[in-house]
Amino acid sequence: MTIQFFGAARTVTGSKHLVTTDSGTQILLDCGLFQGINTDELNQTFGFNPARVDYMVLSHAHIDHAGLIPRLVKQGFRGPIYTTLATIDLCDVMLRDSARIQERDLERVNERRTRRGQPELEALYDEQDVEQALSQMRPVNYNQPFVITEDVTGLLTDAAHLLGSASISLTIRENGAEKRLFFSGDIGRPDDKILRRPDSFPQADYIICESTYGDRLHEPEPDMKSHLLRIVHKTCIENRGKLIIPAFAVDRTQELIYALDQLSSEGRLPKLPVYIDSPMAVKATQVMHMHQDNFNPDILVYINKDGDAFSFPNLHYVSDVNESKAINNRQGPCIIIAPSGMAEAGRIKHHIKNNIDDPQTTILLVGYASPNSLGGALKRGDKEVTIFGDRYEVKARVEIMDSFSAHGDYREMLDFLSCQNPVLVKRVFLVHGEYEKQLVWKDKLETAGFQHVAIPEMGEKVVL
């Protein structure tokens, strides 16, 4: 059996890990889009033949894990895609949105390429490819084994990173022996405001583990709502400015809405217009309502008391593009929440572009942003940033709230892995992280008793 790493190798985007059994069966774990600056060509080719892949198992619906599935289908993949029902419902929303965003962004990309004398790029996929991809998805329940082939069994366990997110266990029988492979997907946090805690998982021989925050601990946030309220008050009441929050359309946006809903119910939220400016976030919130079985007990108690965790006075869900443009033209303080979380696509880029030179504006970053993204540049404190090919001076205030992060820090990830006997784990492969952070995470894993920890390069093939 071999594993080959075609994405999220010494980087955080483009998750793709190809398992090939001794009998030649190919199983792809995730099929994510590379995100960030200068990734257009990376998404054009896979490094393997999509038509040769037999099966796929998807950890969750985030675009850096699912965003190239329609292209995989476009280039010949016709096998089943195993994932949770909530993930399928979210992919229905997120992949359609991705197709539309790519179509718009491709025009700008090709205009720049033409000016540079470079050939134009083709569209990665369209909505027809999305339809085909969705038709190949097969729902799987958590903690219920499912048969992939006569010799391969799968199991999905709750990763608590996103609605429907899963870690993937494969049991592969070869030459009379079993090999147990585990892929963490993205590891969530035990105290997520909406989702349940991550599940434990069966003992593995080989582990593919994420490492996004392998070098750090999240700062303790004793009162996240009060911290958010202080930023709202400083920006919107004292400075009379706009609070702009890039946030992933699923889970992160709803967690913000839930916090604001609680503040409103407590009578502490100023009477300000709050805009959720994203058709995808609107639809994703509807999907969240459909899958409350994924929620933790605390929010279920709140819903039973309040009636709805995602609706309060002065909250406006915006789908229409003209309404979105009107937000930029309005005067006075307000709160604008829009995807993407890395500020790399969608309406948020326009909101940032139109307000980044206003010292009264605050841009609040509430989750991970890769270093080569607009969100990463703002988080890093860059004084100038590039938006739609133009340079802008950063005059707006930039605030960071890591308490909203959906990725576990190294202590939380070690807790997640504590269900394993490290002596029985033959190898650990670190993915989905920046190389310097992975080196730190590798050291922590070795200190915890995991003896053979590797950091694969892009395209590297490993024989198990």
UniProtKB/TrEMBL annotation:
<dbReference type="InterPro" id="IPR050698">
    <property type="entry name" value="MBL"/>
</dbReference>
<dbReference type="InterPro" id="IPR011108">
    <property type="entry name" value="RMMBL"/>
</dbReference>
<dbReference type="Pfam" id="PF07521">
    <property type="entry name" value="RMMBL"/>
</dbReference>
<feature type="domain" description="Beta-Casp">
    <location>
        <begin position="253"/>
        <end position="378"/>
    </location>
</feature>
<protein>
    <submittedName>
        <fullName>MBL fold metallo-hydrolase</fullName>
    </submittedName>
</protein>
<keyword id="KW-0378">Hydrolase</keyword>
<dbReference type="InterPro" id="IPR022712">
    <property type="entry name" value="Beta_Casp"/>
</dbReference>
<dbReference type="Pfam" id="PF10996">
    <property type="entry name" value="Beta-Casp"/>
</dbReference>
<feature type="domain" description="Metallo-beta-lactamase">
    <location>
        <begin position="13"/>
        <end position="248"/>
    </location>
</feature>
<dbReference type="GO" id="GO:0016787">
    <property type="term" value="F:hydrolase activity"/>
</dbReference>
<dbReference type="InterPro" id="IPR036866">
    <property type="entry name" value="RibonucZ/Hydroxyglut_hydro"/>
</dbReference>
<dbReference type="Pfam" id="PF16661">
    <property type="entry name" value="Lactamase_B_6"/>
</dbReference>
<dbReference type="GO" id="GO:0004521">
    <property type="term" value="F:RNA endonuclease activity"/>
</dbReference>
<dbReference type="InterPro" id="IPR001279">
    <property type="entry name" value="Metallo-B-lactamas"/>
</dbReference>
